[in-house]
Amino acid sequence: MFLVNLASAQIITDRPDQTESSSTVGSGNLQIESGLLIGYERSGQNTLRQILAPTNLFRYGLNNNIEIRLLSQFESVDISGISSDGISDLEIGTKFQILKKETCKTEIAFLSHIILPTGTVSLTNDEVGTINKLSISHELNGNMAIGYNVGYDYFGEGSGDLTYSLALGFGVNDKVGIYIEPYGRLEDLSEYVSNIDAGMTYLANKNMQFDFSFGTGITHTMNYISLGFSWLIIRDKRL
User: Fold this and answer.
1) Which of 26, 176, 211, 216 could make a disulfide contact with 16, Cβ separation 3.0–4.6 Å?
2) Model's pTM, two decimal places?
3) What is the largest CA-CA distance in the chain?
């Protein structure tokens, strides 16, 4: 969740919202973000039912400004009655912190992933792709922040997609955060697709956070529900 400086967000995560945070995990730290997602989408006579269980994002801090990232997930898909199960294409990437100062309430980071065609035969895209996002966040006051991403994704064919997200988050107390977020894309640089989602996080302790989110399509038929957790493993600075 993008809430970078709020009291309720001691663990800064890239889930459950679509807006990637503008923060890195810190030098030597490992963060594991895992979850379950159940989704449905319909386009004309075609339907897509999808279960991601689990989806795992591993983030490791090379230093305070750069992290490396690995995303892997098991996927169960039903497309108009034809089912497939297996591992999705692997994503490897990095996030660079561009701006972060104690005296500034704005943070900026750039994230880039390469998608490798390593997945199960029935699920792989069979092409090398890329996901890129500029992430910006602003702390509005002690318990409210806004974050937004703009990006470009390319999956090996067509013109690629321009993407955006805009999330408004609130710290309810020192453990609970909530957000609402419109997001979407200009698919193949020609078709506009718009969605909205909302969710919450619960900080169980200083190293563990749970989350819940749900979303729906605005310009198309889509909905999803997701549960997850994030675990921050902090390097022992005494070593």
Assistant:
1) 211
2) 0.94
3) 60
